Amino acid sequence: MLNADGGTRCASITAANIALRLCIRRLIAAGRCLPANKRLKHDQIKAGVEAPTLSAAEAKAHENAVLPHDLAAISVGLIDGGVYTDLDYILDSNADVDMNVVMTADGKFVEVQGTGEEFTYTRAELDALLESATAGVAALNEMQIRVLDGVE
């Protein structure tokens, strides 16, 4: 049985985005994911017509049309009044407040899941947790870009 904390789930979401973007790139390169105006009709495919090749700029534009914004997730927590980002198991299991945040690269929230494990928390503490999560997700998005640079 898998024993996973919030950090594991967040890492999985962040890595899945990289895998999805790579998949989209490979489908575009193989001619299996094309803009609507370049897609072959069923009878063309049956007749063996080869899919058109996109230029590098067209491929990048289509990739960004298919997946306009990357996505990442991070865990944050409040422990003894301090805000912590990217909680490991020890921090996660000792957090007074535990939160997982999923965001798009353009700063929009997909999910905010937070729990006062043993304590309540104030609006100011919530804002501090969200600020920390926003900065953490931005750093993860930068890492995603670096990882994907140069990958076909």
SSE map:
Elements lengths: L5 H24 L12 H5 L9 H11 L4 E9 L2 E4 L3 H6 L2 E8 L4 E8 L6 H26 L4
Antiparallel strand pairs: 1-2, 1-3, 3-4
Helix pairs in contact: 1-3, 1-5
Descriptive terms for the model:
152 residues; 4 strands; 47% helix
Descriptive account of the structure:
A hairpin with a 2-residue loop joins β1 (71-79) and β2. The two termini are 35 Å apart. The chain has helices spanning 6-29, 42-46, 56-66, 89-94, 123-148, and strands spanning 71-79, 82-85, 97-104, 109-116. With 152 residues, it is of the alpha+beta class. It is elongated and about 65 Å long. Helices cover 47% and strands 19% of the residues. It has a four-stranded antiparallel β-sheet with strand order 2-1-3-4, with helices on both faces. The mean pLDDT is 92.
Major sheet: order of its strands? 2-1-3-4
Question: How large a portion of the residues is in β-strands, by DSSP E?
Answer: 15-25%
Q: What is the β-strand count?
A: 4
Spatial extent as radius of gyration: 20 Å
Quick one: biggest sheet? Answer: 4 strands, antiparallel
Regions with little confidence, pLDDT below 50 for 5+ residues: none
Structural class, please?
A: alpha+beta
**Quaternary class:** single chain
Percent range of helical residues: 40-55%
Tally of individual helices: 5
Q: Please report the distance between the alpha carbons of the first and last residues.
A: 35 Å
Taken from the alpha-carbon principal axes, the silhouette is: elongated
Elements, N to C (H/E): HHHEEHEEH
> Mean pLDDT score, rounded?
92
